[in-house]
């Protein structure tokens, strides 16, 4: 329930602080006095988008605060889920800077506008002429019907399962697309993998082949070099080893004559051994690496295959080919795994569908059971509002698929005149009939305690005096269940209020400002008398106003 509304620097309101009470509150005043301004300010803390042009003083920020009693609204889990501090008396605040930047707060904690709007939708229902037009829409009709049904546990269970069902559907669709694409790619991946597997890729082998290729490609030069080495080192006439051996023998005979000569002998011996070993290795190398054209061709072909694969796959070395081979292998494993994942998700969707179907059936059964009583109650209220011959019917039809609101569509049928057949509201109800029908529906819905506060913005437009009294009775009855406020110009409604708030304009510092004040009983009588007068208040209008107030008081006593 709304306890207090504080408004600063909003349109024509410089500063206002309004206390609200339980029961029935009337907000009245001359046209243009600022009644809609108060609703506009309240809408800001309920999540409406801000308009910087609404600032009265363009150099200062606008601040709107609302104090709400939420003790009985079961909102603790909402606060916990959104990491907010819960207090049974809650403060909502909205600030609009001159630059147009807006900030929202719940109990002094900054929040985004969507969160504020979500919470606001559970606190106050502002009923306007625009909302009456929504009555032509089937979705809004179903929303009203379910609010009267008042089975939130069914709706919550369905919503939870529906969200799981939609997620499973989306995941299954994505997996099917991925699987279809994978199947199209599978032949390509397998061909590439088979080609790379057949190549028997080996980095060590390729290095060895490249070295062998260099060797075989220069076999002629190597043969010339080894033959020359053999000739120089071992041939009898010019052999280096032969000359070195003789030189060693000569110095060996002279080694006793000087110590240095003995050192020469050792070094000549060492050189002889090293050259002999080198000659043997060269001869062995030459014998093992005799030129073989067939081997050169085989090595070249193997290397060409490796180089061709590198060029084809745009990699710089054989390691890149090996990595690519493993990548194709992994892709094929993933494709195989998609089949299993697809099967699992199909099973999950099937299970979700069965659970959702069961919950939808329970919701459908509850809706069917509610139709007859709902129709009777609406017709009874329409009769109170002067529509004695009105017929109201609810038609429910199954849907071919699940929707966010169940598996059926719902349409309101209406006929205001005797002898006619009910037809969809959009085709039969006039503006005035639509307004009274909406009031009847809202009355039933809010008796179920769906929202703690409802505000009617001139729902009495175009209503006659006789109907106005009946309308006032309905509003008064609603106020025994919830907090009801009505912006009105009708004395019959104003006389039934528990609290009367007057909105008026005055001039302050050469500026027009709006003010809102509660009226005492004597002041209330004068205001109602003004509603009953054409221009000036007369004794007759005061007497009529007094009679209306006394009648309202007696009806109140009788109800208690």
Describe the structure in your own words.
The protein has 560 residues and is an alpha/beta fold. The radius of gyration is 48 Å and the shape is elongated. Helix content is 58%, strand content 18%. Strands 2-1-4-5-6-7 form a 6-stranded antiparallel sheet. Strands 8-12-13-3-14-15 form a 6-stranded mixed sheet, with helices on both faces. The chain contains 18 helices and 15 strands. Helix 9 packs antiparallel against helix 10 (259-288), helix 14 (431-447) packs parallel to helix 15 (465-478) and helix 17 crosses helix 18. Helix 15 links the parallel strand 12 and strand 13. The chain has a domain at 183-335.
Task: Provide tags for this entry.
560 residues, alpha/beta, six-stranded antiparallel beta sheet, six-stranded mixed beta sheet
What's the layout of helices and strands?
Blueprint lengths: L1 E9 L2 E7 L4 E5 L6 H11 L16 E8 L6 H6 L7 E8 L5 E5 L2 E3 L1 H8 L3 E4 L1 H5 L4 H12 L2 H47 L4 H15 L1 H16 L5 H15 L4 H30 L4 H20 L5 H67 L6 E13 L2 E10 L7 E2 H4 L2 H17 L5 E5 L7 H14 L4 E5 L3 H4 L4 E10 L2 E8 L2 H12 L6 H21 L1
Parallel strand pairs: 3-13, 3-14, 8-12, 12-13
Antiparallel strand pairs: 1-2, 1-4, 4-5, 5-6, 6-7, 9-10, 10-11, 14-15
Helix pairs in contact: 5-12, 5-14, 6-12, 7-11, 8-10, 9-10, 12-14, 14-15, 17-18
């Amino acid at each position: 329930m709304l306890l207090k509304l504080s408004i600063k620097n909003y349109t024509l309101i410089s500063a206002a602080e309004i206390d609200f009470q339980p029961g029935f509150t009337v907000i009245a005043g001359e046209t243009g006095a600022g009644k809609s301004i108060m609703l506009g300010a309240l809408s800001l803390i309920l999540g409406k988008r801000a308009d910087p042009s609404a600032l009265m003083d363009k150099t200062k920020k606008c601040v709107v605060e609302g104090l709400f009693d939420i003790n009985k609204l079961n909102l603790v889990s909402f606060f916990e889920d959104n990491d907010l501090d819960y207090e049974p008396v809650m403060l909502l605040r909205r600030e609009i800077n001159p630059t147009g930047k807006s900030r929202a707060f719940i109990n002094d904690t900054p929040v985004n506008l969507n969160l504020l709007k979500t919470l606001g939708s559970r606190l106050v229902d502002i009923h306007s002429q625009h909302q009456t037009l929504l009555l032509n829409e089937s979705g809004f009709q179903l929303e009203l019907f379910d609010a009267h049904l008042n089975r939130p546990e069914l709706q919550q269970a369905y919503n939870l399962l529906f969200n799981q069902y939609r997620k499973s559907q989306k995941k299954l669709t994505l997996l099917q697309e991925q699987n279809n694409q994978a199947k199209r790619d599978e032949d390509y991946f397998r061909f590439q993998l088979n080609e790379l597997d057949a190549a028997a890729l080996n980095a060590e082998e390729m290095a060895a082949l490249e070295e062998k290729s260099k060797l075989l490609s220069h076999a002629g030069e190597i043969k010339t070099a080894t033959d020359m080495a053999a000739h120089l080192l071992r041939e009898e006439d010019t052999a280096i080893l032969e000359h070195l051996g003789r030189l060693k023998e000569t110095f060996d005979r002279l080694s006793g004559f000087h110590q240095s000569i003995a050192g020469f002998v050792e070094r000549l011996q060492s050189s002889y051994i090293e050259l002999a070993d080198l000659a043997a290795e060269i001869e062995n190398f030459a014998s093992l690496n005799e030129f073989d054209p067939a081997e050169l061709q085989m090595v070249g072909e193997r290397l060409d295959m490796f180089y061709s694969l590198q060029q084809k796959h745009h990699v710089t070395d054989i390691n890149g080919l090996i990595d690519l081979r493993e990548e194709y292998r992994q892709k094929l494993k993933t494709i195989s795994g998609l089949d299993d994942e697809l099967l699992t998700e199909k099973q999950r969707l099937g299970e979700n569908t069965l659970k959702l179907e069961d919950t939808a059936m329970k919701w459908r059964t509850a809706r069917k059971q509610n139709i007859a009583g709902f129709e009777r109650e609406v017709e009874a209220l329409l009769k109170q509002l002067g529509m004695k011959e009105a017929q109201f019917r609810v038609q429910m039809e199954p849907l071919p698929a699940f929707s966010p609101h169940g598996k059926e569509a719902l349409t309101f049928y209406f006929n205001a005149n005797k002898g006619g057949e009910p037809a969809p509201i959009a085709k039969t109800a006039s503006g005035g009939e639509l307004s009274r029908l909406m009031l009847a529906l809202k009355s039933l819905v809010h008796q179920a305690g769906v929202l703690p506060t409802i505000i009617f913005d001139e729902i009495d437009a175009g209503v006659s005096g006789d109907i106005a009294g009946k309308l006032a009775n309905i509003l008064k009855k609603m106020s025994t269940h919830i907090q009801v406020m009505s912006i009105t110009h009708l004395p019959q409604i104003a006389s039934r209020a528990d609290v009367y708030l007057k909105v008026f304009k005055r001039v302050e510092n050469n500026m027009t400002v709006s003010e809102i004040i509660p009226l005492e009983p004597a002041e209330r009588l004068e205001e109602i008398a003004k509603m009953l007068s054409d221009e000036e208040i007369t004794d007759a209008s005061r007497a009529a106003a007094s009679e209306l107030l006394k009648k309202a008081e007696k009806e109140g006593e009788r109800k208690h």
